[in-house]
Amino acid sequence: MRKPILIIPLLLLSLGTFGQVERPRNLTAFDLKRIHFGFTVGVNAMDVGFIRNYDYTSEIAGQEFRYADLSHPLPGFQVSIVSDLRLNENWNLRFLPGISFGSREIYFYEYNNGVAGDLVELPNVDNPVPLGPAFLDFPLQFKYRSLRVNNYRPYLVGGLNFRYDMSAKKPGSYDSESNEYMKFKRGDLYLEFGFGVDNYLRYFKFAPEVKLAVGLMNIIDPIGRTGHPDFAGSIESARSYIIMFNFHFE
Predict the structure, then answer these.
(1) What Cα–Cα distance (Å) separates residue 50 from each residue in 67, 75, 106, 114, 162?
(2) Does 141 reside within a domain?
(3) Does a structural domain hold residue 21?
(4) Domain assignment of residue 16, yes or no
(5) Of 8-22, 81-95, 170-184, 199-213, which gets the smallest average pLDDT?
(6) I need a labelling partner for 168 at 20 to 30 A (CA). Which of 58, 202, 204, 238 fits?
(7) What Cα–Cα distance (Å) separates residue 196 from each residue in 83, 129, 141, 199?
(8) How far apart, in whole angstroms, are the C-alpha atoms of residue 133 and residue 184?
(9) What is the separation of C-alpha 93 from the centre of its chain, rounded to a whole number of angstroms?
(10) What is the pTM of this model?
(11) Would you say residue 242 lies in a domain?
């Protein structure tokens, strides 16, 4: 009976040792480069958080508070160029200029005395109002990398990103043929943070990454459309949120 009892701990010891076996490493000198480059492709979902001005009043008849809400997050995509500067063994400074496209559809409703659930679609209003940005991105981020395990290296990223919407018109400018009743400002500063895993392949490094961007500025254009100031006036402020799933090739 002693032999089977002795075999069990030996098997467990051998399994533990096998799990710690050092596998052949790819790109062993990659992390020693002072500077390296690459590119990124990814998908995103853009959201907006509204703070509504429930006390909005107007001297014009029929122009009262309008309840604005995002229909649902829609998919978009982004591409960028990776420029990576090695600071030390664990820290890197990264600049990833690029362009990102997304879609946001805003619905407007009548709001009857604040009664819960009492939202009625506005007559003679083309709902939803599409606000699909085309951003130029200028992110500057710090990347903290953990210790490398075989061909994997988890990391955290964080930094700031200035985005400029190329599709937005100048403040107060509305297309007479469009159904825009409010607009977002052209520029916004985002705080971004996320995590990913560097995978060292034979010829290049591949890293899937999840990242959240939080807008730091009020993006509502306070100048409403002529004849319809109630739509912009009913929103005190709005902040942008973006969830991104990126794939880095370096």
Answers:
(1) 10, 20, 11, 16, 21
(2) yes
(3) no
(4) no
(5) 8-22
(6) 58
(7) 17, 35, 14, 10
(8) 9
(9) 19
(10) 0.83
(11) yes
Domain holding 57, by residue range, is 33-249
Q: Is 2 helix (H, G, I), strand (E, B) or coil?
A: helix
pLDDT digits (tens, 9 = 90+) for 149-174: 999 999 999 999 999 999 887 766 76
Per-residue CA distances from 92 to 26, 33, 83, 144 (Å): 20, 11, 10, 7
Please name the amino acid found at residue 159. Answer: G
Task: For residue 239, give every residue at least 6 positions away whose Cβ sits within 8 Å of its Cβ, in sequence order, or none.
Answer: 48, 49, 214, 215, 216, 217, 218, 219
Instruction: Report which residue type is found at 29.
Output: A
Say if strands 91-95 and 134-145 run parallel, antiparallel, or are unpaired: antiparallel
User: How many structural domains comprise the chain?
Assistant: 1
Question: Which CATH number fits the domain that encloses residue 97?
Answer: 2.40.160.20
